[in-house]
Design a protein that fits this description.
Chain lengths: 99, 670
């Protein structure tokens, strides 16, 4: 099978994820979309690794998964903490950093 | 370190220590101790100067110029300036006069200022003043000279406006400072010019370079000398930069004595004597100095005839006497000029102290129109003041008699047009004798005023504190004169200082009697060894003849004052009415203040107002400042708009940046 198909699929998934991160306001959905982007990256890494016959890409994919898992743990922790304090689960309402 | 070097540093160390101790420890100093510390510091400096005198006398004639350097003050490629002093006969002589007379003035101040709230502040300033002056005379190069020169100006500002809540005192201080800064600029530019031409800043190097690099009356050298004269004239209150000195009378009376007698105004005389090799190479500049000196002598003497403020009469007398010294040193009669500097320091300090005592008795009133008849009430002040006036008038055998007539004899000795200058100097001497005894007769003789009568019965008159210039009522808080006024009759330190100065005023002339003693000239010879003018003496016969003429003139002047003020007291009023125009002209001090006001002060003030209204508010505030803030505001509002606080907006920016980078690399790699 040609490499191009894998890369195109990866790009689609990445774009879906990116669009979700940019447009959604629920932090849970944003986290899901982030995972989608990371997995798009993983797909590309594994595809390149397989096609070129080098194992590095697969190892990197594993590392990305670990990092993603850590990130989700922290992100979910934050969101649960916010929910417990009855704060709205809406990232647009948390804009205290504006200039 | 040799003995001369050690003593040279000690002369500076003691006043510095005194200044620091009083300035930082004043809270802990009880009663009059600040005054005694200040007096002691200057007295120790005087003893160090005596030590320096003894130690350089022990050296060979050729070696009597000792330099010492503490550290390199400024060091760059090609040259360095040391923090160095020069101990030679001239500087030792100046140190002796400055520290000696200053310590007596400190002693006098211990009593005179003792009821003033700013007692410790006063002595800190006073010690700083003497320190600056000693630094000026001991400086071994032009840079350090300028440092001392500027310090003296600053110290005079602090002391003249010592009573800082008096508007008049503050204005007088500002005036003195501004005119002195004009002089500082002249001096600094002269130093630049000399450095540019000779590549050196220490005296020996400058003189050596000038001798090699310049022919007689070289244009650049004359310019440098004239710039030095600007500095000298501003500091020494010579025409046309004299107007600050009479106003400087706003300071406490001992300050007037200090400025006039020992420090500050003599700095110009010292400067010309110190840079004499330059002036001898530029006789044109020396002639300018001599002419201005003589013009000042006559001008100030005429004004002193009509001024009614006791301290201002003495102030004009100083301007006049400094003119004699400038005349002396610029006709190369250095010994005579410096001799007059010394005797003048004695009798002028004495006159001011006497005036201070009288003003104390008058409760702060300074006008001689209100004084009279203090002879019986204040015998000690009367006798010492009269001694001072006799010395000032040049009465035979008093100190001023020998010193002033020596200058005149040297002037006649130059021949040619200098003879006319000598005649002018004699004319001024007549006026000097007249106004000196105008003070004595108006203050101490005649009908006793109520204050004098009170004092005869043992009561010291007390007026509510008021500004003698404007008559405004005043407080006696800090920044105003103290509530009590002190007189020599009742205060031992004042009496001691005045007594010592009276003795010196009588005997000071003995060091240089023509044909008998020439101690001073012999002592100064190593400094002026290479000077041609120094060795051109008038013959002893000519000097003695000059003394006889000078003595007769002094007696004539005193007799004239007696005739006008004592024999027929109405004559002075008649004369004033008959010559009302002349009197008015003199009373307005030849309109100098008004002239400067019209030429410099008002145009400058107008320019300042225009600058403030047009340039400052419209251009600077409107266009420049306004424009700059506009740019900043526009920029910040854009930056603020980006900082929305929305996570997705930041993420979008991140993506856009990543895409831009990716696009860039794609374009570059293809």
């Amino acid at each position: 099978m040609d490499l191009v198909w894998f890369v195109v699929l990866s790009a689609f998934i990445f774009c879906i994820g990116a669009a979700g991160v940019l447009t959604r306001r629920n932090p849970l959905v944003i986290l899901l979309c982030l995972e989608l982007m990371l997995n798009a990256g993983n797909l590309a890494l594994v595809a390149f690794s397989k096609m070129h016959g080098v194992g590095d890409g697969q190892v990197f994919a594993l590392i990305v998964m670990v990092v993603a898992a850590c990130e989700v743990v922290i992100g979910l922790g934050l969101i649960v903490a916010m929910y417990r304090r009855r704060l709205p689960i809406d990232v647009d309402q948390m804009s205290e950093l504006r200039g | 370190m040799t003995a001369a070097q050690t003593f040279g540093w000690l002369i500076l160390a003691f006043p510095l220590l005194g200044t620091l101790v009083i300035a930082f420890g004043w809270r802990a100093l009880p009663g009059r101790s600040a005054g005694w510390i200040g007096t002691g510091a200057i007295a120790l400096a005087f003893l160090s100067a005596v030590g320096a005198l003894v130690s350089i006398q022990g050296l060979g004639e050729e070696e009597r110029a000792v330099t010492a350097s503490a550290f390199a003050y400024a060091e760059t490629a090609g040259f360095s300036v040391d923090f160095g002093i020069l101990v030679d006969p001239l500087s030792v002589f100046m140190c002796l006069v400055v520290a000696g007379v200053s310590s007596l003035i400190h002693l006098y101040s211990v009593s005179y200022l003792s009821s003033d709230e700013g007692y410790a502040r006063y002595f800190a300033y006073l010690n700083f003043f003497v320190l600056s002056m000693l630094l000026l005379v001991l400086a071994g190069n032009l840079v350090l000279l300028i440092v001392g020169w500027a310090f003296v100006g600053a110290a005079s500002y602090l002391l003249i406006s010592f009573w800082y809540r008096r508007q008049t005192a503050v204005y007088a201080g500002i005036k003195a400072f501004v005119i002195n800064v004009i002089g500082d600029v002249g001096l600094v530019v002269a130093a630049f010019l000399l450095f540019n031409e000779t590549g050196a800043l220490d005296y020996a190097g400058v003189f050596e370079g000038a001798r090699e690099g310049f022919s007689t009356n070289d244009g650049t050298l004359v310019a440098a000398c004239l710039l030095l004269l600007v500095g000298a004239f501003a500091k020494s209150a010579q025409l046309p930069l004299h107007t600050w000195l009479p106003d400087a009378m706003e300071g406490p009376t001992p300050v007037s004595a200090l400025i006039h007698a020992a420090t500050m105004v003599t700095a110009g005389v010292y400067l010309i004597a110190r840079t004499h090799p330059l002036f001898e190479l530029a006789p044109a500049a020396a002639d300018v100095a001599a002419i201005i000196g003589l013009a000042t002598v006559i001008f100030a003497a005429t004004v002193a005839l009509v001024v009614t403020d006791l301290k201002r009469i003495i102030a004009y007398s100083t301007i006049s006497q400094i003119g004699y010294m400038i005349l002396g040193v610029s006709i190369f009669a250095y010994g005579a000029g410096l001799f007059h500097l010394m005797t003048h320091a004695f009798f002028k300090a004495l006159l001011f102290m006497g005036a201070g005592s009288v003003i104390g008795a008058m409760g702060g009133v300074q006008s001689i129109d209100r004084m009279g008849g203090f002879r019986k009430a204040m015998p000690f002040t009367f006798i010492t003041f009269t001694i001072g006036a006799l010395a000032l008038a040049g009465f035979p055998l008093m100190s001023g008699f020998f010193s002033k007539d020596e200058i005149v004899a040297f002037t006649f000795n130059r021949g040619g047009l200098y003879v006319l200058m000598g005649i002018g100097a004699y004319l001024a001497a007549l006026l000097t004798a007249f106004y000196a005894f105008r003070m004595v007769f108006r203050v101490f003789w005649g009908e006793p005023v109520p204050e004098a009568r009170e004092l005869e019965q043992g009561h010291l008159a007390h007026h509510d504190p008021a500004n003698p210039m404007t008559g405004e009522a005043e407080d006696s808080d800090v920044g105003f004169p103290g509530p009590e006024h002190h007189i020599a009759e009742r205060e031992a330190p004042m009496r001691a200082a005045m007594g010592a100065l009276a003795v010196l005023s009588v005997l000071g002339g003995l060091v240089a009697i023509p044909g008998v003693t020439d101690t001073l000239e012999h002592f100064l010879e190593p400094t002026f060894a290479e000077s041609a003018g120094f060795h051109e003496h008038p013959s002893t016969g000519a000097e003695v003849l000059g003394l006889v003429v000078g003595g007769l003139i002094a007696i004539a002047g005193i007799a004239g004052a007696w005739a006008v003020y004592l024999r027929r007291p109405g004559v002075s009023l008649e004369l004033r009415d008959r010559f009302r125009a002349v009197h008015g002209f003199l009373e307005r001090k030849w309109w100098f203040d008004e002239l400067y006001d019209a030429v410099f002060v008002r145009p400058a003030a107008t320019a300042g107002r225009i600058g403030n209204s047009v340039i400052e508010s419209a251009l600077v505030q409107g266009v420049i400042v306004g424009g700059a803030t506009g740019v900043v505001r526009a920029g910040t509002s854009f930056a603020r708009a980006i900082q929305s606080g929305y996570v997705r907006a930041y993420a979008l920016l991140l993506f856009m940046g990543l895409f831009a980078l990716a696009l860039y690399f794609l374009i570059v790699s293809s």
